[in-house]
Structures are given as structure tokens and as C-alpha cells.
Fold this protein.
Amino acid sequence: MSQNSNISYLNFLKKVGISSFLQNKPKVIYENEDHKNNNLLNLDINEIKKLNDLESLIINSNNLKYKNYSNKITIGDGNENAKIFIIGESPEEENKKMKPFAGETEKLLDKMLKAINLDKKFVYKSNVVPWLIDKNKKIENIDILKCLPFIQRQIEIINPKIILLMGPIAANAILNSNLDFTNLRGKWHKYKSINLDQTIECLVTYHPKYLIQFPKEKKYAWEDLQMLQKKINEN
């Protein structure tokens, strides 16, 4: 249809009283990042299916920005399809790359995994508290309780076969237990969630940072690692 024909047709429509049109398709509206984040905040955490979205939720959860939290977080590192999930306490102060385990702690953890022939590329790592805690502060129960839904949802998204809990904070938080670390260490426990079809095997052991400070405990950590290796071979 020519331009003149278009104009004539529009004039005809105007004369018969038509003054507006409805589109067959809705307009494509660009959704900026702020709008996306607001949508995430309105979601039930159980509706989140991706780790990237979970990370965005954590970053924008204003009620969790305590004065003892920095603005830096890490929710995890490694293979997102891993069957082995290692959980520690919180990112460390020297952690410039914002990984769950860093520096000498990461080096020792790598050695521990290598000792049982477990390639770290088959592992996913995270912490109970995703925020970098001020070096002058310690992790308190209120911090753990506020962050617990995040690590629980992370477990559900990864859906591993085995969880290695490193240190008392990770052990007590994930197992929902008040037992002393010595009573939890070196034993297999069950992790249950209403959003998972089956339970997950959990093993409690020492955090690498603790083993650096108290190297005499490494012999007990080695016993735990052998238990882990045996379980992996069984599966």
C-alpha cells in the first residue's frame, strides 16, 4: 500500500470515529537490573532455581546487611553439578578473589582432596555465611540463622550426594545440632529437606584453617578423609 493510500485510509478511519488502535502483541519492555532484583526479592526463596539468582537475592537482601558484614560476598566456587559439596564457615579477610576458601587454607584443602585422589574440579565449595566478616568480629548465632536459608537453598540447587562439613559452625548449622564438634566429627549424618527427594550423606571434619593452627589434629582429619574416600568408592 502506497503512502498516499495509507493517509487516505487513516482519514477514512478518523471520519468513522476510530481514534486509537490496540496492538496484536504487547510492547517489549526492557527490564533493567534494578527491576529484576526487585522481582527476585519478591520471590519465595524456594522458587529460585539458579545460583546466579540466589547470589542476586543475597546481595540485595537489605535486612541482612549488618554492620559487621562487608559488602563482599561469595556464594560458592566449583562444579555446579558436583556430587560432593564442601561447606565451611565464611570467606576469610585475605580473600581478595572472594572464594569460599583462600590462601593457605585453600592450599591445604587442595592437598587434603588430592590425598584421597579427589579432583577439585568434581567438587563444589561454599560457606554457611556468604559475607566477608570483619576481622574484628566473630560469627554469631544471629548471623548463622539469618544466612541459613541461603545455604540450605544452595544445597537444594546443587543437590549433591555427599556434603563435607568443615568446622563446628558448618556442622551445627547444617545438621541443626547443638552437640559438641567432637561428638559430630568422624561420623556420617543425614541431611533432610522437604524440597529434596532423598537425604544427603554428611561427614563432619576439621576446617583447614584450624588444622594450620593445630597441625597435630591432622591425623584425625586424615581418618575422616579416608571415610569420605570409602563412601565415594561405594557410590
Remarks:
- The mean pLDDT is 81.
